[in-house]
Design brief:
Blueprint: E1 24-30, H1 34-45, E2 50-53, E3 69-70, H2 78-85, H3 87-110, E4 122-125, H4 129-146, E5 151-154, E6 169-173, E7 177-178, H5 181-195, E8 198-200, E9 205-210, E10 217-221, E11 224-233, H6 244-247, E12 251-260, H7 265-271, E13 277-280, E14 286-290, E15 296-300, H8 309-326, E16 335-345, E17 352-356, E18 359-363, H9 369-384, H10 410-427
Parallel strand pairs: 1-2, 1-11, 2-8, 4-13, 11-18
Antiparallel strand pairs: 3-7, 4-6, 5-6, 9-10, 10-11, 12-15, 12-16, 13-14, 14-15, 17-18
Length: 428
């Protein structure tokens, strides 16, 4: 079993090579994931001298480790979002999630990125009868408040969608999609380079210093300094000491995935007849799908703690057990891959983008970032360039920090939260 992302074995991510660090740029972007590369492409297309600094390699973080699910909505569920934000803001954010998927689809088409993008829809699965009743209320709210249709699927009709009988119904949203995230990030890197952006790998940023004159910033890396007029922090859950304000506002949560050996066509088809992106309704949720080469990819919060060798090994065992609970027919399937990644949650469970101390940032996708990250990266670029495009409300929301310096206690609190969520899943 390989302890690395299955997706990375499906594509050769073209290395940036031993590019030397330029001494000057109009814009420096920290992080070569979907947010950073999308912003780089958009800025370079506007004629800006753009340099992307990546501490590891292109797409090393969440951008190539996720489940490849391009989902409508946000982590915060519609009912909670309306209660928290009010109807108008909730409707605007939901519309952004829909627009982000269409924008990604157009990007893939425009740049001819071969990444298995498909509008297959997603299916949320009710782990308990009460969760199915919640789905009914959620479907009515989405129709009434957001003006779009989703479909409640009774338990008796689920067999047309999933080869499992443990769920009590579902909620189907046809607007979602699936993608190979490693192929997507590799294609976006090529597009950014073709537009004129430079990408420097193995260049961890140590500090960002701001001066009084022009250029405004000096960014210090392991390769030396680069001066820039604009800096974008696109580092997500892997934000470090270079952005202390941002780091305080991120709650890093581990997510883990296993992938089986390729399955026979009949078995693969029986697991997910509609080829949907699927996830259950638990707080300690599972998400799963069949890949284009007929593997079952099964992920979840087997541990809330960010990934290490030991948490990945332990999580793989838990996920295999849970996969067999959903799909007993996979009891003898070999597990070929197991990996983990870290997701950037925020205190209010919402994504945020904006400017602090003249540094632009975008974080907080909380597992819903495949389309949103690329979209928000382009929006940041538009805002920097002074375009009216960069006016989405996601760029204007207040960004609260967790209370009482919680960021310093994150590892212990995350473990406690995981145990609490397991308890709630048992009793609710």
């Amino acid at each position: 079993m390989k302890r690395s992302s299955y997706w990375l074995d499906t594509v050769d991510v073209e290395a940036a090579g031993a590019a030397s660090l330029p001494s000057r740029a109009d814009a420096v972007i920290i992080g070569a994931g979907l947010t950073g590369l999308s912003a780089a492409r958009a800025l370079a297309k506007r004629g800006k001298r753009t340099v992307v600094l990546e501490a590891r390699t292109i797409g090393w973080g969440a951008s190539s480790r996720n489940g490849g699910m391009v989902l409508t909505g946000l982590k915060l569920e519609p009912q909670a979002m309306v209660a928290k934000l009010g109807l108008d803001d909730a409707r605007a954010l939901d519309a952004i999630s829909i627009r982000a998927i269409s924008s990604l689809e157009q990007l893939v088409r425009d740049e001819r990125i071969d990444c298995d993008f498909a509008r297959c829809g997603h299916l949320a699965l009710a782990s308990k009868p009460s969760h199915y009743e919640y789905f009914k209320r959620e479907a009515a709210l989405i129709d009434r408040a957001f003006g779009r249709r989703v479909r409640v699927v009774p338990a008796l009709e689920l067999r047309a969608e999933i080869g499992s009988n443990i769920y009590h119904g579902g909620l189907l949203d046809e607007a979602s999609a699936g993608v190979n995230p490693a192929k997507l990030v590799a294609g976006l890197a090529r597009a950014a380079r073709a537009a004129g952006a430079a990408i420097v790998e193995q260049a961890p940023v140590v500090s960002i210093r701001q001066g009084a004159g022009a250029p405004r910033f000096t960014v210090t890396t392991g390769h030396g300094d680069i001066a820039a007029d604009v800096v974008i922090a696109a580092t997500g859950a892997y934000t470090g000491v270079e952005s202390p304000w941002l780091r305080k506002r991120i709650i890093p949560i581990g997510s883990y995935v296993i992938a089986t050996e390729p399955l026979s066509p009949d078995v693969a088809s029986s697991l997910a007849p509609g080829k949907r992106m699927m996830f259950d309704s638990k707080r300690f949720l599972h998400y799963f799908r069949v890949t284009p080469d007929r593997r079952m990819l099964f992920g979840g919060r087997a541990s809330f703690v960010p990934e290490t060798d030991s948490t990945t090994k332990r999580s793989a065992e838990i996920l295999r057990r849970d996969m067999i609970e959903v799909y007993p027919q996979l009891a003898d399937a070999r597990i070929d891959y197991a990996w983990g990644g870290t997701i950037d949650f925020t205190a209010d469970m919402l994504p945020h983008a904006g400017v602090v101390d003249s540094v632009h940032y975008a974080v907080g996708y909380a597992g819903h970032g495949v389309a949103l990250s690329a979209y928000v990266g382009a929006q940041l670029a538009a805002a920097i360039a002074g375009s009216d495009e960069g006016t989405d409300p996601i760029l204007r929301r207040q960004f609260p920090a967790p209370a009482f310096g919680v960021h310093r206690l994150v590892p212990g609190l995350v473990s406690t939260a995981g145990a609490w969520y397991r308890f709630l899943d048992m009793v609710s």
